[in-house]
Amino acid sequence: MKKENVMGRLLKRLFREHKIALIVVVLCIIGNALANVQGTLFMQTLIDDYITPLIGSASPDYSGLLAALGRVSCFYGIGIICAYSFNRIMVTVTQTFLRDLRIELFEHMESLPINYFDTTAHGDIMSVYTNDIDTLRQLISQSIPQLVSSTITIVAVFVSMLTLCLPLTLVSLLMLSIMLFVSRKVGTLSAKYFMKQQDDIGKVNGYIEEMISGQKIVKVFNHEEKVIEGFKNLNNQLQQSANNAHKFANVLMPVTVQIGNISYIVCAITGAIMALSGFSMITIGTLVSFLQLNKNFNGPIGQISQQINSVAMAQAGANRIFKMLDEKSEDDQGIVTLCRVKYENGVMVETKERTGHWAWRHPRNDGSVELVEMKGDIKLENVDFGYVENKTVLHDVSVFANPGEKIAFVGATGAGKTTITNLINRFYDIQSGTITYDGIDIKLIKKNDLRRSLGVVLQDTHLFTGTVMDNIRYGRLDATDEECKEAAKLANADSFIRHLPNGYETKLTGDGSNLSQGQRQLLAIARAAVANPPALILDEATSSIDSRTEKLVQDGMDKLMTGRTTLVIAHRLSTIKNSDCIMVLELGRIIERGNHETLIKEKGKYYQLYTGAIEMD
After folding, report:
1. Which of 443, 442, 428 is nearest to 374 (CA)?
2. DSSP line for 360-386
3. How far apart are CA 257 and CA 600, in angstroms?
4. pTM for the predicted model, two decimal places
5. Cα–Cα–Cα angle for 197, 202, 208, rounded to 5 degrees
6. What is the sign, positive or negative, of the torsion defined by CA atoms of 514, 520, 523, 528?
7. Helix (H) or strand (E) holding 297
8. For the chain, what is the largest distance between any 2 Cα atoms, rounded to a whole number of angstroms?
9. Position 615 confidence tier, pLDDT thresholds 50, 70, 90
10. Is 271 exposed, middle or buried (0-12, 13-18, 19+ CB in 10 A)?
């Protein structure tokens, strides 16, 4: 994405969403600039027409001077009101714009495929919401109003300078050209490093997030010094890029200020010489007004150069924000949805009642709608898949899970077990072959409906901040308290929950850190149970549980699996002995399949794994 397009896109969006407010802001800025310029111009009249005649007067009359001072006060009073108004409006515009942008970012993030989160550091994503958004806050609330105000002031002051004295205006323009040349050179250098700085901030945040998540592992292996060294390296890179960015940006303001001071001195000397030489166009009032205008002219130039820092940072931040917004959402062209059904005279009829029966609502080309009973019939036929192009990890995989059957996958790490379940969920799409669910190609099923029909219990359990009840209800948000408790009983979690300080209302924080791994796993199973899906995916669901807890979990899972199609991945082969079919995978291929007794008789890879002849790494 080109940098100039990023800023243009940002400004167009800002104006589109807050057009009226920004028009009012511009009018207030114009009013403020004109009031200040008019007050400065009036200094000439004040000095030449009111103050000078009073000097040496025998009987001075101050009434005219007081009236003139009143008019000057009115000009500056209008400027104060306008400045206050546009600053207050910009505060509201800024916070509203950023609120809406954060909402859009989060909504878009929720639509992104799993692959994005697998390949992007989570801390880097967090940096977009924090550091990069904050750069826009500075841009919109401070830099943009300052740039607009400075530009309008420069134009108004320049026109006023022309009306007062052309020769002195030419002197000011000469100094201005020098100031602009310096600003352009320094600004170009700093902008490059601000892009690097924002990227380095994202890397530092990503590293910190990763180390916090893996702190126990760091301490177990005594790698504190190693991770500190890694952080120092990233932090040094950030320091270097930030140093380069601010080194150029910070030097710009004092340089332009000093050039402005030189311009003021040159104009003062030139004007004094002209006045003393008898130029009729130069009076004391004219010179005083012009010198004030010169300050008002150079001041905004310096203010513009000062904002280069914020603009460069905002440009870098906006680039990362829009890069995330431009990430492609999950492709979902499905037309088949889930619906509740009831039976009237043996015929399925769609209903909104909670009947416990579900069907696939399948629109046909002729405009009719077919209701297909949801049974949990899952089939993979000749499936090939690779996470990246030209690197296949599943080769010609075929799996047939009939309704109510328990299918188990075993094999070494990296054999492709979890990949198969990811394909059924459509976290990834296959390269060739077909996957059907109750005879329907899953590409035709809307992803939300597909995933709603599959209960999943993962090895890495994630619990959210909230009560125990909230975490169970996450499986189905409209579940009642009683349904959640029944699900907990089914998962054998009810007993330990009732012994918690506040039972089902016990607050969980830090991913359930106040619970044991086994208790967290039981809650995950209860969460799947309350969803009451026709099919289950159990990915290493008991691998992190002690033997005693495993018996509770296994009993709960056996109840949960009754009547449901279940796909199980397990290292503990004792948990899958009763499976209808066990599939042994190796390097992405199914090398053996059959029930426990059949595979034991064949004395192949499964037999070796079961008897401990080889280890399942």
Report:
1. 442
2. EEEE-TTS-EEEEE----EEEEEEEE-
3. 86
4. 0.73
5. 125
6. positive
7. helix 284-306
8. 129
9. low
10. buried
Assess whether pLDDT exceeds 80 at residue 355. no
> For position 1, what pLDDT does the model report?
45
Average per-residue pLDDT for the chain: 83
Who contacts 12 (Cβ-Cβ below 8 Å, separation ≥6)?
A: none
What letter represents residue 399's amino acid?
A: V
Q: Are strands 565-569 and 581-586 parallel, antiparallel or unpaired?
A: unpaired
**3-class state of residue 62 by DSSP:** coil
Task: Assign residue 539 a region (left: φ > 0; alpha: ψ between -120 and 50; beta: otherwise).
Answer: beta
Give the span between the Cα atoms of 211 and 122, in whole angstroms. 12
Report in angstroms the alpha-carbon separations of 595 from 47, 416, 530. Answer: 105, 20, 30
Average pLDDT estimate for 147-156 = 85
Q: How many angstroms separate the CA atoms of 55 and 581, rounded?
A: 111
What single-letter amino acid sits at 154?
I
Q: What is the pLDDT of residues 80-99, one digit of tens each?
A: 999 899 889 999 999 999 99
Tokens found for residue 469: 């009840």
CB–CB of 410/436 below 8 Å? no
Rounded Cα gap, residues 525 and 530, in angstroms: 9
pLDDT band per the 50, 70, 90 thresholds, residue 172 = confident
Pair 374, 490: CB distance under 8 Å:
no
Tokens of 218: 């760091």
* Contacts of the segment 93-101: beta carbons below 8 A, 24+ positions apart: 93/14, 93/18, 93/21, 93/22, 93/25, 93/140, 94/137, 94/140, 94/141, 96/18, 97/14, 97/17, 97/18, 97/136, 97/140, 98/133, 98/136, 98/137, 98/140, 100/17, 101/133, 101/136, 101/321
Query: Per-residue DSSP letters for 120-159?
Result: S-HHHHHHIIIIIHHHHHHIIIIIHHHHHHHHHHHHHHHH
Identify the three-state secondary structure at position 521. helix
CB 573 within 8 A of CB 410: yes
End-to-end CA, the chain: 44
Single out the residue of 581, 579, 583, 577 nearest to residue 605, CA to CA: 583
Q: Which two tokens stand for residue 162?
A: 């022309």
SS3 state at 339: strand
Question: CA angle, 455 as apex, 453 and 460 as ends, to 5°?
Answer: 145
Q: Please write the tens of the pLDDT for every residue from 509-540.
A: 777 777 887 888 888 888 888 888 888 888 76
Task: Please work out, in degrees rounded to the nearest 5, the angle formed at the alpha carbon of residue 402 by the alpha carbons of 401 and 408.
Answer: 35
Looking at 414-562, list the stretches that DSSP marks H as alpha helix, in order from N- to C-terminal side: 417-424, 447-452, 468-473, 481-490, 494-498, 517-531, 547-561
Angstrom distance (rounded) from CA 433 to CA 444: 15
Q: What CA–CA distance (Å, rounded) separates 598 from 315? A: 65
Contact by Cβ (8 Å): 569, 540: yes
Give the 3-state secondary structure of 538-584. EECCCCCCCHHHHHHHHHHHHHHHCCCEEEEECCCHHHHCCCCEEEE
CB 187, CB 246: distance < 8 Å: no
Q: Distance between CA atoms of 336 and 75, rounded to whole angstroms?
A: 68
Q: Output phi, psi for 511, to 5 deg.
A: 60, 35
The two structure tokens encoding residue 315 = 């440009």
Q: How many CB atoms are located within 10 Å of the residue 197 CB?
A: 25
